[in-house]
Amino acid sequence: MSWNGNTAKRQWAVAGLAALTVAVLACSSPTADVTASELEAVVESDAIIIDDAIPDVVVNRLADNRVVLLGETHHLREHWEFVAALVARLYDRGFRQLLIEAPHMASWLIDDYVQGSRRMPDWKPPPFYERRLTAIRDFNQTATAAADPIHVRGIDANENFYGGARDFHLVLGWFADTLPTRGPLTPFLDGGYVDAGAPEQQQAIDDLIESIESSRDDLVDSWGLDRYEELVELLTVELASIDVRAKRADDDNDGARAREDVIKRLVDQRVVDCSCGTVINIGGHHAQKSHLMGTKQEWLGDYLVNSSGAVDGSIIVIEFASAVTELEPGAGGTPWNIVESNSPDNEVFRLLAETLPDHTVFLPLDDPIFSERTIAFNSEDVIYVTPLRQQYDALIQYGLAHRMPVD
After folding, report:
1. 12-94+276-403 has which fold?
2. Where are the domains of the chain?
3. pLDDT tens-digit profile of 178-202?
4. Radius of gyration (Cα) for the chain, nearest Å?
5. Residue 281: pLDDT band by 50, 70, 90 thresholds?
6. Which residues contact 211 (CB under 8 A, 6 or more apart)?
């Protein structure tokens, strides 16, 4: 999509158990020891239907935490409608920040858009983001939030699939246009950054940071402290992103780990900078509390739950899925129906769909079976078997969702 604290105690034995009990149906692996009838009883007892407004019992559960971490299946329209409704409901409980899986280089543009496009009145976000952020922009224009709005920030590295160096250069030029003068940015923007190799790009960013820092007092007088610090952060994150992009080219897992490190640092910084509640929306793999799916690394959820001094353990992690997914025109992928998938009858999302058909459901993972016994869990038609509470604190499943196109 082009834009044209202190380390907490780690439960290594518990995380190890989760890794050992993972099961993929294609392999010869153990099956979940919680039966369909046992799981159905818990669903009937604990599940909360949230088809319309988000109930107070759910809002209260989430608002008691400093951070609400949402692990999504990407590109579902209903999910972004839920996110907008959630941050609006949490507003009265002190939440003022939504962090999303978007490139850091465009973070200032995204936030400006939801604030009413004060800095870039002529900029219109790509449809991919406009569809996701318009409701939050609208909420910020209400009497409730006008004086104290919700901010939306991008927390991802400037990966090649976001446009990489090309779009960073473009967006930095737009940023420069919002300043009284371009100052040290002029020679950089006129140079050959986009077509340079990684070492040359790193040197160019290093040189630019040095030039900006050596002129700090004059630039702060001209630009203001906020814009000065915003620019330094833009350049610092791009410097880290060059490393991510270079590692991706050699070893995707190594690059993924470097990317996750950028995300962790940005989240910590945002949580510290905002003395408010924070909602984080990111892919379900990133949100998991211990390693189970994907690259072998410490994921964002794992870090925030167990290690982040900024969050200090005040976090709830929710995984999202849909029982049925239909494709909007132009959307990629294939339609999805959990009941027609390879889920066994004791798989949690299948059982939710069969027990409460056509409903959006919140299921807290409070019952001891989720931490003491193994649960079958379907992630994109791969079945894992794990003590599910080790991965998430709650599940939300949409009865029906629509996958939007990526454009």
Report:
1. EreA/ChaN-like  fold (3.40.1660)
2. 12-94+276-403
3. 999 999 999 999 999 999 999 999 9
4. 22
5. very high
6. 184
